[in-house]
Every structure is written in structure tokens, then in C-alpha cells.
Amino acid sequence: MINFNINPNEGTVAGVTDGVASNSQALRLERQGDLQGAERAHLEAIRTKEAGLGPNHFTTAVSYNGLGELYLKTERLEQAEDYLKKALRVRRESGPKADLAVTRDNLGRLYETKGDLRAAREIRCEGVADSNIACSNYNCANLSNSLGTLSQCSACKAIFYCRRTCQQVDWRRHKKYCRRIDA
Question: pTM of the full predicted structure?
Fold first, then answer.
């Protein structure tokens, strides 16, 4: 882990300050509907963070995850999977526990989209042992839950929610992919 308080080099400072600024710009552009601009900003954040902090730094994983989410949103599934798996690899080793749960849930959404509900369930359930499963409502702030506190979709059993309102909000998206799977 890099200690930012003891004489950081220019690359480290740029990786943090410029990388975070590019991430913020990407999110702002995405909210404004400029998805191409958001992609460029995410890629710039990744380039800056990889150069200054390295590809295995937890803040670089934030950018991998952000670009993976954007690609998922734009149905560029192979690219989404590549970046989400990069984020997952890093987040398994470092960074906030909730970030790992979010990346696993993003991969779960990707596998749902691909029609692989078994893989969606498996990636989400990787968090069972350490009570680290995100609510599958993308906009919910409950990011690190034990399996016992969550409800699952009664049909596919591949997706988890912290409360009924989260399930209702996400149903518009999930119903396109939901089908029964064998346990």
C-alpha cells in the first residue's frame, strides 16, 4: 500500500489527483448523457492511475469498475466483463469490502444480461462467507450484507435484495432476464 503522506512522487500525486478528477468528470458526463465523453474520461482516469499508482491499486479498481459499469449500460458486454474482472481481481486483494460486493453484483448483472443466471448467482454468493453481498438494486446504499438479511428472487434465485422496495424498483430491469434455474 502506498503511503501518500511521505514524499509521494509526481506520478503518485497525478495518479490520485488527476485520476480522481477524470473519474468525477466521467460520472458527470454520464449523468448528462454524454456516454462517449464518459468513456474517454474513464479511460484517461485508468491511464493516469495505472501510470502513477499501478494496475493493482484499489483506486485504479474504482476506474476499472466505473468503465465496466458504463460498458454494461451501453451493452458492450465483452468490454464490460474485461474491466469488471480487472476490478474484481484488485478488489479481492485490497480496498473497501463494499467495493468488492459492488463489483461482484455488477458482474452478476452482466451474467444476467448474457442469460447465465447460474453464473450470476455464483459470483454474488462469493460474498456469503464474509457477509459481503450487495443489494442488487443498483441505487441502493446497502452494499455489504449477510445472506440471511437479504431476500432473493423467488423464480431465479440469482439476485438478492435488502428490502421489498429494492426488488420492486429493480424488477423493470430484472424481469427481462428472470427465469427459473436449477439450484
Answer: 0.90
